[in-house]
Amino acid sequence: MSIGDFSVAGRLADTGEGITGDELQLAARNHGMPLEGLRYDVTPPGLHYVLVHYDIPATAAGDWRLTVGGRVEEPLSFGLTELRAMGRRTIRVTLECAGNGRATLQPRPISQPWLSEAVGTAEWTGVLLADLLRLAGLREDAVDVVFTGADHGVERGVEQDYQRGLSVAEAIESGTIVAWEMNGAPLPPQHGYPLRLVVPGWYGMASVKWLRSIEVIDHEFDGYQNKVAYVLRKTPDDPGRPVTRIEPRALLIPPGFPDFMSRHRFVAAGTVPLFGRAWSGWAPIERVEVSTDAGVNWHEAKLDAPSNDELAWRAFAYDWEATPGEHVLTVRAYDTSGREQPIEAEWNRGGFSNNTAQRITVLVT
Amino acid sequence: MSIGDFSVAGRLADTGEGITGDELQLAARNHGMPLEGLRYDVTPPGLHYVLVHYDIPATAAGDWRLTVGGRVEEPLSFGLTELRAMGRRTIRVTLECAGNGRATLQPRPISQPWLSEAVGTAEWTGVLLADLLRLAGLREDAVDVVFTGADHGVERGVEQDYQRGLSVAEAIESGTIVAWEMNGAPLPPQHGYPLRLVVPGWYGMASVKWLRSIEVIDHEFDGYQNKVAYVLRKTPDDPGRPVTRIEPRALLIPPGFPDFMSRHRFVAAGTVPLFGRAWSGWAPIERVEVSTDAGVNWHEAKLDAPSNDELAWRAFAYDWEATPGEHVLTVRAYDTSGREQPIEAEWNRGGFSNNTAQRITVLVT
């Protein structure tokens, strides 16, 4: 027997096939942000979504080294203390898993089975990646920057350290930081202790955790996570398009109170204040619409002031005059780049970037 | 339509029925501790398991009141500041969800679908419940103490605030505390901010979160969570036995590295240090046995020194001489009360107290 016997190709669920044991193993390890967590401007760390491809590695800050090498004038190596001396910048960032919404797709791609809660907003503190690259000095032939984490595992038969690449332009212009703090405290183990990348506006797969190496290369990075895993494909042999920035999405805090098992919601008739958050990795949110009749009529929500960090989520509110009976709430976001959240997003084999509008069924009593 | 249409009786999965959408909704909200989290003596808050029956309530420490009333000489009411003035005690406690292991049962009870990771150990700081009861003065007819949280919802048609009862003797002798800190920081929202009960040795359902009321009553508490939900039953009309203290369990950190999707493990041949933790809510752990051949031969693991808090988990280690091929690791715990962890626990309809021994399949290369 070999690794390939236990690490197989991706597949789609059969019609009517329940969530598999493999999917459940991932759902039991990783977790979303319960949607009432939308009430916090900054998500408390244990409520922020977590996706770990392999295991959370055993790491220590004391002897941690981050190397910057490849197509640079001067290769560098930093301990935590040296890195902290390079500067200190705090940014508020909304991160979302690229697979958020996957388990609601038909047919369902078999992987981490997110519903709609794989999101969170934190204040990350670190040093600008651009400053590190400037210090090392990019050579003229620099094309991509490759980030390697300390987490090691296998995916579809390929043994690997978790690695992602960004173009030099994106690495510099995105405002990416190498962070050692989350919400003013050292990174929790599951969020990359002691050091991680945070790429504002991009789905979470770009923000490499347990970061130990930054390497500049003179060609396009063709690693597994860029070229095989996070790609939007309609068919297995579709070359596809890479998953990059976060598509616009709005989510409401489900109003009223739930049934434990079905999570169905119950609320008393009258004015029900609805509250939620909206975000996009492409541009600031400029409008959110709410429907309380399953999308027949739409009403503009009242937006809070935007955050100083323009790609962090933005709060919105809408007062619903709830009448007895069953109602379906739905909501959609628009950003200033002209992108609008669809009622139903296009399907793809990996179940990525699925920003289909949230639907909440509520019984008003 | 009424609440009862959406909040129905519990059921068992059909033969071969995959994890349902309802179960997935719970798995996406609640989370276990990835088993590599066993490496930490004290579990970082975001890695500690969380189970929330309804929603995490919106709470504020500033105006929080905890009342102590019912069959007492003098009803009391505390704000956080007054409560802190009552004393400060820190205890290390291993908490486990009563439903841990549920999703591995055949047939599978439909509820929160835990595999084996619904556990965590924290240092909780607060005041002894016994001191609060002494101050209020128990009347002679006091029988049970009822704890009410701020979380509100419906279960199997019963609308309720989350409530649990303990006998007066258990409330005093168990060393239960009313806690406002977890690992030296204010409680995270999902762990009961600003105030919760921590009942050492008992499954997590006893440790009421968002605690707002303690009421002493003159009869046995017959609330939903004590008499309907957390009961060990073989059949629906079995009166059953209440779920109480944590049964002994040992868990290993899965060695080597995983496949992303199957979580199958791979390790290189040679000496593989195995490490894990064992606990019991009944008595201290006195022995842990490891098998590397699916339970044919058992070897005594080396136990670390016990914790000062004797019901907190205890670390163990065993050096495995791993040879190429597929191997099944399994492990079991023994406590000083004479309880031993079974290879396969008895089935019950709620899927509670399932301490069936862990099995990890590893490919040695």
TrEMBL record, chains A, B:
Cofactor(s) in the UniProt record: Mo-molybdopterin
Q: Coiled-coil segments, which residues?
A: none
What GO biological process terms does the UniProt entry carry, in alphabetical order? sulfur compound metabolic process
| Keywords linked to the UniProt accession | Metal-binding, Molybdenum, Oxidoreductase
Q: Where do the Oxidoreductase molybdopterin-binding domain residues begin and end?
A: 53-224
Report the GO molecular function annotations. heme binding; molybdenum ion binding; molybdopterin cofactor binding; sulfite oxidase activity
Give the CDD domains listed for this entry. SO_family_Moco_dimer (cd02110)
Span of domain Moybdenum cofactor oxidoreductase dimerisation:
270-362
- What's the superkingdom here? Bacteria
What InterPro entries does the record tag this protein with? Answer: Ig_E-set (IPR014756), MoCF_OxRdtse_dimer (IPR005066), Mopterin_OxRdtase_euk (IPR008335), OxRdtase_Mopterin-bd_dom (IPR000572), OxRdtase_Mopterin-bd_sf (IPR036374)
| Entries under Pfam families matching the protein | Mo-co_dimer, Oxidored_molyb
Q: Which PANTHER family match?
A: SULFITE OXIDASE, MITOCHONDRIAL, SULFITE REDUCTASE
Kindly provide the name given to this protein in its UniProt entry: Molybdenum-dependent oxidoreductase-like protein
Name its species.
Kribbella jejuensis
